[in-house]
Amino acid sequence: MSHMDDLIAKDIHAYLTAQEHKSFLRFITCGSVDDGKSTLIGRLLYDAKLIYEDQLAKIETDSKKSGTQGDKIDLALLVDGLAAEREQGITIDVAYRFFSTDKRKFIVADTPGHVQYTRNMATGASTADVAVLLIDARYGVQDQTRRHAYIVSLLGVKHVVVAINKMDLNGFDQSIYNEIEVEFREFAKALNFAEITCIPMSALDGDNVTTQSENAPWYKGPSLLDYLEHVDVNAASLDAPFRMPVQWVNRPNLNFRGFSGTIASGTVSVGDEIIVIPSGKRSSVKEIVTYGGNKDVAVEGMAVTLTLTDEIDISRGDIICRKDHPSEQSDQFQAHILWMDERELYPGRQYLLKTTNKTVPASVSNLKHRVDINDFSEVAAKTLGLNEIGVTTLSLSAPIAFDPYNINRNTGSFIIIDKQTNQTVGVGMIEYALRRASNVVWQDLDVNKAVRSEQKNQKPVLLWFTGLSGSGKSTIANLVEKKLLDLGRHTYTLDGDNVRHGLNRDLGFTKEDRVENIRRIGEVARLMVDAGLITIASFISPYRAERQMARGLLAEREFVEIYVNTPLDVAEKRDVKGLYAKARAGEIKNFTGIDSEYQAPKNPEIEVNTVKMSADKAAEMIVAYLEKHGYLSGFET
After folding, report:
1. Is the pLDDT of residue 211 over 70?
2. CB 228 within 8 A of CB 243
3. 160 or 58, which is more confident?
4. Whether the predicted model's global pTM rises above the 0.85 cut
5. How does DSSP assign 180-207, residue by residue?
6. Which pLDDT does position 328 carry in this prediction?
7. Domains and CATH numbers, the chain
8. DSSP assignment, residue 296?
9. Which end of the chain is more exposed for a tag (fewer CB within 10 A), N or C?
10. Is 550 helix (H, G, I), strand (E, B) or coil?
11. How far apart are CA 363 and CA 350, in angstroms?
């Protein structure tokens, strides 16, 4: 690397100390396709002499093979690392690069410009201090410019550089620059950026990238590198209240007990009084232990272990705060969500919500609206699709400690995980807790589930019948209830068709309505189980996620899944209502098994093969299962 420092030769220890104490900046490049993002980063590294000689030699070779600049070196290849990117001349994934100058250390995220990769761009923006938003001077502000500007604003980036690129193609015409600057600033008024800096440049030729260009004498502002080296992004975070999510209780021996984690915001000093959320326990900092030795003060971003003056109970997932500035806690929020999965988000479906170091089951209780990021208008929506942003209310199974995202990006953000696949399907930013929900507390009653169960001499359970339409679910469920009634047991049946005459009469058969249908039934069934009843639910319930959600509402072994396994052709032959024929003729839409999928259970407690077994024999088998496992006597075996 040709970038050197005089201190290396004179005083290597002083040089290493200076490197250690340099400030650190994360920034992102974003914008429309082919605006020159990768070329800009390549030019920045090349002109600042931050490329190793072997890297440069390889790029020169690759430019002849995959380059887009003719005989010139194609600097975009420094960051377009995927073969697919080089072949298409675009960026697909987020490419991270580390580099350092005399004044500062940097990590830059080069993000894709295509709409379908918006989720990748959001990933890069989530940790950025500065966004460099490129605009092609020939085309001005585009839809993707607005989309990316909105997302970086939503993700808390306060400093934006508008890099008006390819100015060399219009002779660095100041009037074009002025028009683009005015248009962007007018558009960005609603985005609450702390600072917008516009720079005319040519990434290809290096104008105003690392040094000011003579081709734009009318421009008096900084070059891009000068701006990045001097922009102040640390003051606000260091002034923020102290937050340290506990990742690990460090107990190597009987003489040491500390609490390890990375400081999410603020500073902490030895002697500071702290409070632990959610327990509310208080103490003072005795030591700040780090890999490099004990410190008197620690700041945001440092991984530390805190020891306290008092023995108090702290667990992974708790947040240590300064005593006079504790974080909030709640189990219901309003939040923005950016959906990142090709399968849509459905209100009512249960997911996992993960914050800094705590994971809890959660669901979107209400999708208030989708945001049209071209004009910020609110659009009514029942679901969110890939790369769409919505304002939602969230309901969690347990309270979490948090700060609103606009106050603290670390403790106000979360990811959403699909419970079936363990894939990250969304990211979110908490706006505020729903205060009204905190006043609703479950009322303990003297006559509870245990008392009701003892009275009825049975163990309450939810028998969940699932299968295709025409599989025989309702027939078998009806026979099971009859047999239980003959045994003197207390039951109730919730049937799919029957509940649509009342409780769920407002729901159709779209995927989102099916999800809501099962969510409501799950809640009703939970109340019936609480009443001590053997509850029978007979529903197609085509999605595993919703059946798992219903199971999660109940205690262990209170949910018995019964898969009525009937092949589609057999179910069609039994179809006395003619529904399958209408579905195949296109008269009925979203019919399970025809144009809507059915996800068969993977590990049901009971499986009934109605081809090999009569309905009466199936009912006998189910009742025998209940008898064997103690549900009919109140004592599980």
Report:
1. yes
2. no
3. 160
4. no
5. HHHHHHHHGGGGT-SEEEEEE-BTTTTB
6. 87
7. 6-233 (3.40.50.300), 242-322 (2.40.30.10), 328-436 (2.40.30.10), 449-628 (3.40.50.300)
8. S
9. C
10. helix
11. 5
